[in-house]
Amino acid sequence: MATIYKVKIGDIEIGGQNPIIAQSMTNTNTLDTEVSVKQIIELFEAGSKIVRLSCRSIKEAENLKNIKESLQKKGYNLPIVADTHFNPAVAEVAANYADKVRINPGNYVDKRRQKIDFSAEEHLLEREKIKDRLQRFVETCKQNSTAVRIGVNHGSLSERMLYRYGNTARGMYESAMEFIEIFREYNFHNFVISLKASYVPSMIEANIMLHKQMQKKGFYYPIHLGVTEAGDGEEARVKSAAGIGSLLAKGIGDTIRVSLTEDPVEEIPFANKIIENYAGRSEQNMPYYELNKSSKPQIILKYDNFTDEDILINSAVDFTRINYETSYKRLKILSNGIAKNELSNIILQSLGIKYSKAEFIACPSCGRTLFNIIDELQKVKQKTSHLKGLKIAVMGCIVNGIGEMADADYGYVGAGAGKVNIYKKKQIISKNVAEEIAVDELVKIIQENGDWKEL
Ligand code: SF4
């Protein structure tokens, strides 16, 4: 039996049989106390139990103290989380004030050096560097009872992990496990782990691997679930339900976040709806389905008298679970005898089975976002949705956005207030394009590269 660790985040305990909870993230400037506090309260009021803020600098990390105090004065004592991503110095300061600090193993110490091979000695040497650098952070967390999230992102694995394991679910798992083992060597256990990807099958595979391996190794820490850069609208909701819901239905996951490129408040009711449906804490029975054994086998799912939202969540989760066991390429969803073909197509695309339009990867935005990503995503989608098979990333900042746009064919990335950089794969093609003309510039670049098709 594995030792199950419960984690305290402020006054909330997660892990074990504790309830599964939804969390969210601000998209405000963390230096702006008033605006950030206002949005955090909106998120708490909407049902989020934990709110994360981006911390880009030591000043922002220090301002968490004012944010926390202001929230407490207003009667809100729920936990706040600092997202420090790649800056150990910021993480060490944030650990004094936040209830939890998120760090990313992919860039916490390992820097991008365009290095493509690592000997076994170099690999271990880097691990030692990470261990040394984590010591002060761990001590501060212990002193302040601060929790940590080891937050791995598929799009930002270290060069060292990429060399050894490739850009794979295994690479995500190994990145997290290295940090887990270092924390355990320091006798620090107040942490959760997340393995996020924008591609749903990778996110599922990595989390199942983590779940199994932790049990095998005899310890179990809480898992935070999320599909990152999911975009907006039905596509994003399908991806989130498929990834998060299918894992919850397997009894995996303790906290969740649905990331949408929409108003952050929109994320919470949908996240809570997924929890409501699938937070059973033990593996649920496989859903009922019909298999049409024609020459091309087709799964048929039926939902009579369900709301549209419940059909979306249930069909995304049910098909993902069925497909995890046996791979099927065709899906029909029926509601009171009416076929939901558009939804079937979105589900098939979210699992990488069949592409019927362009695929969009878009970040939910945060304090680093320098342009109106919600509007920009809409403009990009309007012009390019018909480009079946193309992957287009719309990201809020050049700091993390480029790494995290994964294997997108084109990138449309916020470079400054009202400015956009456009990429072909990871190569920059146009810099600082004014927002008003940036979508036309993207279309021009797609045309010049031979990937454009008229509607
Ligand atoms: S890519 Fe988006 S969510 Fe990620 S740090 Fe940049 S703006 Fe924030």
Question: Which key features would you list for this structure?
Answer:
single chain, 455 residues, alpha/beta, TIM Barrel, Sulfite Reductase Hemoprotein, domain 1, 3 domains, 8-stranded parallel beta barrel, 5-stranded mixed sheet, 42% helix, binds iron/sulfur cluster
Q: What is the overall number of helices?
A: 14
Major β-sheet, in short? 8 strands, parallel, barrel
| Fraction of residues in H or I helices | 40-55%
Q: Record the strand order, biggest sheet.
A: 4-5-6-7-8-9-11-12
- The tally of strands reads 21
Unreliable stretches covering 5 or more consecutive residues: none
Protein structure class: alpha/beta
What would CATH call the class of the largest domain?
Alpha Beta
Number of domains: 3
CATH topology of the largest domain: TIM Barrel
Radius of gyration: 21 Å
CATH H-tier superfamily of the largest domain = Dihydropteroate synthase-like
The shape is: globular
In angstroms, what separates the terminal alpha carbons?
Answer: 58 Å
Overall residue-averaged pLDDT value: 95
Summarize the structure.
This protein is α/β, with parallel strands linked by helices and 455 residues long.
Care to describe what's here?
With 455 residues, this protein is an alpha/beta fold. It folds into three domains: 223 residues, TIM Barrel (Alpha-Beta Barrel), CATH 3.20.20; 61 residues, no CATH class; 90 residues, Sulfite Reductase Hemoprotein, domain 1 (2-Layer Sandwich). It has an eight-stranded parallel β-barrel with strand order 4-5-6-7-8-9-11-12, surrounded by seven helices. It has a five-stranded mixed beta sheet with strand order 17-18-19-20-21. Strand 5, helix 2 and strand 6 form a beta-alpha-beta unit. Helix 6 runs parallel beside helix 7, helix 7 packs parallel to helix 8 and helix 8 runs parallel beside helix 9.
